[in-house]
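Translate sequence into structure tokens.
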Amino acid sequence: MRRILTTLMILLLVIVAGLAALIVLVDPNDFRTYMVHKVAERSGYQLELDGPLRWHVWPQLSILSGRMTLTAPGAAKPIIRADNMRLDVALIPLISHQLQIRQIMLKGAVIQLTPESRASVQQKVPVVPHDRLLPQIFDGSRWSYDVQRLQLVDSILFVQLQEDKQLTVRHIDLQMEQDEKHHASVDFSGQINRDQRDLTLAFSAQIEGEDYPRSFKADISRLSWQLTAAGLPDKGIRGEGNARMSWQGDKKSLRVDDFNLTANDSAMAGKFTVMLAAYPDWQLDLHAEKLNFDNLLLQNDIPAGASSAPSAPGNLLSGQSRPVIAHRDDDNDNLWREFNGHMRLTADQLQWRGMTLSQVKSDLSNQQGLVTVNQLQGELSGGQLSLPGILDLRGDTPQAVFQPELKRVEIATLLKAFNYALSVSGKLSLSGKFSGENIDADTFRRHWQGDAQIQLQDTRVEGLNIQQLVQQAMMRSNNHLQAEENDDNATQLNALSGRLQLAAGKVTLDNLQGHSALLTLSGQGDVNLQQQVCDMHFDLQILDGWKGDSKLIAALKQTTIPLRIYGKWHQLSYHLQVDQLLRKQLQNEVRQRVNDWMTRNKRLQQSTEVH
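Result follows.
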């Protein structure tokens, strides 16, 4: 055992002595000119190293430098600058005074992809006419990445997208290793900042780059991300994913297959391609098992001036706030103008504002700001919903036109989703056309316009029994009338139909027709969405539920009773002219009895004269 330890100590001393001798005999500054020359020869870039180079032995043999910069030919600013650079080198080649770099490590590097850091085009180089552009041929003379390992620690990347748009990637940690065939493994983490949006991203990938820049392939096996921004939930959106990517340089085409991504509790899969051009062209084909927009979008349901008073018994509407459907963002509008695209998206389940839609199908296209919703449909509450339309974002003011179509959708689900505390249930069918500017609730209440045909089946209005209301008013005015007991505090209609018109916040309902076994009604009225008031006029006929004088009941069944419901949504009032109706009914009855008496008396006189 002692001999083994002695031998190991001797070997360690020999290694230490050899390294010390090598460090003394080989000056790393001898490689300065060599490295600068090789970088310029292979890429045309200018490498500058400030300060002396020095050795670093542990944990591996390395050359340390001070500040370094790498500048493209003719560029005003360096594309890369770093305060520290470490070159991990192989030991054996140093014995013959050869430099073999195994890994380059930059700490605190600043990478700038801006117009000032780009290589300038030489003025004497001939330019190919635009009408005779040929595919670019890569002859292998261009610079290619040929370092076995690259490491970036706590670095930053600036990308100039437009004159006033900049993308920043902070806290970059990158570890890249490749073999002689340019098959590389990459581990990356960083934080992307743009327009007060922060995306934290980390992934591991396997890259096949032997044919780069003509083409390359990447297999992203592990992807994790988190997005925080205004308009998103407080904790942001986070998820994981994986994908396979391929790039075709001659076509400038990026294709992504086997795409899988989660976002909070939503999951999406599919494929897409993008053709890079002056206006990039996106083609997406996606499927989602579940899309929960309630966990992806911030709900802002409290417009200015909204009341939060609780609903009193009998009130049809409460003062709860209305939802914001979307928020106008000029930057987002401009973004739509910068690309073309087509997306097909299907979802087994879609959650939005508490509504659960199933079997969702959508087909959308964008032509530089002209968004066409060719198809947007799904199943909701036992019915079907379809919302095709057009959104034009090319001008200063967005213009939207939609043709909603609903078939037997539970209206209570829609009212609850948009915080309207109107206690109405029934199967709603609607077909119409609406147009306006911004797609948000406030603009809809103020500026949208349109019309639609509506139908409601099996309707039930809680808190207001119209039949009971009329009968009780009749009984207070006439002691000879009685009504059957009815404890149901609701109005039920088998069917209700009419026409709806919307103009600048005013909803006009006309040609309303409804019926049930107990009553029929017709009517019209107005609802002001801004002032939150309504004024509805109905003509009623109570068909059943009476007790008393049979002749009077038969007459009342044929009598049209006017009813007016009006006032603030939170405190509705009604008006019934029951006394006038009964007085008129009594006058008609007396008149009819007098006519009957006169008819009988006339017949009696005629019979007496004959005899």
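Note: Residues 578-610 form the longest helix (33 residues).
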